[in-house]
# Entry
Amino acid sequence: MSHSESFLPYGRQTISKNDIDAVVEVLRSPFLTQGPAVLAFEQAIAEKVGAAHGVAVNSATSALHIACLALGLGPGDRLWTSPITFVASANCGRYCQAEIDFVDIEPTTGLMSVKALKTKLEASEQKGTLPKVVVPVHLSGTSCDMAAIGALADRYGFAVLEDASHAIGGRYKDEPIGNCSHCAITVFSFHPVKIITTGEGGLATTNSFRLAQQMAELRSHGITKDIQRFERPAPGPWSYEQQSLGFNYRMTDLQAALGLSQLQKLDEVVTERNRQWQRYRELLSDLPVNLLTVPEDVLSSFHLGVIRLTDPDPDHHRYIFEGLRNMGIGVQLHYTPVHLQPYFRKLGFKEGDFPAAEAYATNAISLPLHPGLTNHDQQRVVNTLASLLKA
Ligand SMILES: *Cc1c(COP(=O)(O)O)cnc(C)c1O
# Structure
C-alpha cells in the first residue's frame, strides 16, 4: 500500500512543533500540575468563547459530572438528553443517581428536536415528572436551537447544560458556542479526535461565579483553600478545608500547555473543517446520500462529517460501512442510540422508544474529516463510496 492509500481515520489530532515545545517547557518547569498553565488555559478559553468563567478538568465526562452536581442534580431528579450522543451525556446524570430520559432527534440535523422536547415537557408537567437538567448536544459541532431550548427552560424551570464536546469554535446566532447566553453551563472536550486537544481533557464555562466556584471545588476533593470561605476558624496558615465530597478531576499543566498552544489555531481548524465539508458536499452531490443540515444561523465546527444513505435498508448500511472499512476508510457511526446500549436497556429502554434516533442509526455514516485530510484523501473516500453505492 502506498502512503496515500493508508488507513484514513474519521478524525485525529494535528500536533505542531509549537505544541511540542509548549509541553516540553512545562516538563522543565517546577509545576507539572496545579501550576500556572491551567489557570491561563481556563482564562484563554473563557475569553475566546465569551464566558465569565472556565473550569478545566481531566475530561468532558468529568466536566459533565461536576456540572450536574453544581446544578443540584441528585437522587430522584431527572436529566434528559438526546439519544444520538456519546454515552457520557447521559451517564453524568446516573453518577448523581438521577433518572435519565431522552428526547428524540430532528432527522435532518440529528439534533434534539425542540418540538419533541416541548411535547414531552407538556406531558411531564401534567404527570409531575419535569426534568431538573436538560443536556442538548451539539452533534458534529452544530449548535442546537438554544434560544428555543432556553425559552422552554424558563417556562418549565429546568437548567440547561450544553454538551458542546464537538463544538468549540462554532457559532450560534453569531455568538460563540460556550458564552452561555442560553444555558447555565457549557462543556467542551479536548479528547484527541475533537476540534482541539489536550490529550485527555475537558472544560466547563459558565457566567455564574457560584457555579464556577462549586465546580472548581468538586474537581479537587471538595477542598477550598480560600480562608474567607472556611466554615471553621483556621488553626494555622497550613490549612485547607474539605467542605463537600469532591474528586480528583484536575487537568495537568502539561495538558493545559498543549491546550493553550492548540487554541491558537482553533479558527484555522474550524475554517479548514468547513472547507472540507463544502468539498464533500460538491463531490457527493450526485450520489444517493444526504448530508446533515446545518441551520442558517449556525456556524458548525464540523467535528464530524455525517452523511445519511437514502436507502433505508439497514443491511445496505452495513454493506456500505464494511466496504468502506475494508478499503481503509475509517468510517464510524456517531452514534448507536444511547437508550439501546445494554446498560440503558437494563433501565427499561427498548427499540421503538425514539424512532427518529433509531432510523438515524440505520443510515448515518461519519466520513473522515480533520485538518490532516488531503484533497486526494477526500476524493478517495468519495470514489470508494460511489463504487460501493453502484455495486
Ligand atoms: C467525546 C464526548 C464526550 C466525552 O468527552 P471526554 O473528554 O472523552 O470525556 C461527551 N459528550 C460527547 C457528545 C462527546 O462526543
In short: Residues 59-61, 85-86, 88-89, 137, 163, 165-166, 189, 191, 202 surround pyridoxal-5'-phosphate (CB under 6 Å).
